[in-house]
Amino acid sequence: MRGCAKPGVLSRARRLRRDQTDVEQRLWHALRGRRFGGIKFRRQMPVGHHVVDFACPVRHLIVELDGGQHATQSASDEARSRVLEAAGYRVLRFWNNDVSENLAGVLTAIEAALGPSPQPSPPDGGEGDNSYRSLAPRKRGEGGGEG
Asked: Residue 53 belongs to a domain with what CATH number?
C-alpha cells in the first residue's frame, strides 16, 4: 500500500518516525526486527491518507497508541478505525499508560489478535505440527539457532 499514499502522507510518516514518543519507542523496541515471534511490524506506516502507529501488513493488524488528547476525539478515532477496517485491517487501540504500566499485557493482547502462526507442511507431506507457537519476544541468547 505504500504506493497508494496521498501526497504529503509519506513525508508525515517519515517525520513521525523521526519524532517518536517515549511510549512509541518502548513498544517499537518489543516489535521491531521480527523480535515478536518472527512477525514483521512497520511503524508509522501510511494506509491511504492515514499514518498508523504500528502495522503488521501480513496479518492485517494495526496497533494504535492513544494519548490523553484522544479522550476528547473518540468519534474521530472511531471513524478512522472504520476506514482502516474497510481497508481490511483489524485495529487495536491502547492508551499510552497501558504501554508504560503494562507492556506485557499489551504484548499479550497483540499476540492474541495475531492468532497462531500458520505452519508450513513438512516436506514428507504429513499434517505437520499445528500447535500454537508463542509470539512472545525472546530474550537474547534463548532459542538457539538462526537469528
From this structure: 3.40.960.10
What is the distance between the alpha carbons of residues 57 and 116, in angstroms, rounded to a whole number?
Answer: 16
Q: Which residues contact 24 (CB under 8 A, 6 or more apart)?
A: 43, 53, 65
pTM comes to: 0.70
Residue 49 lies inside a defined structural domain of this protein:
yes
Ranges of the chain with pLDDT below 50: 1-3, 70, 120-122, 124-147
Q: Are 53 and 63 in contact (CB under 8 A)?
A: yes
CB 69 within 8 A of CB 99: no
Return the ∠ at Cα 44 (arms to 14 and 97), rounded to 5°: 125
d(CA 11, CA 70): 23
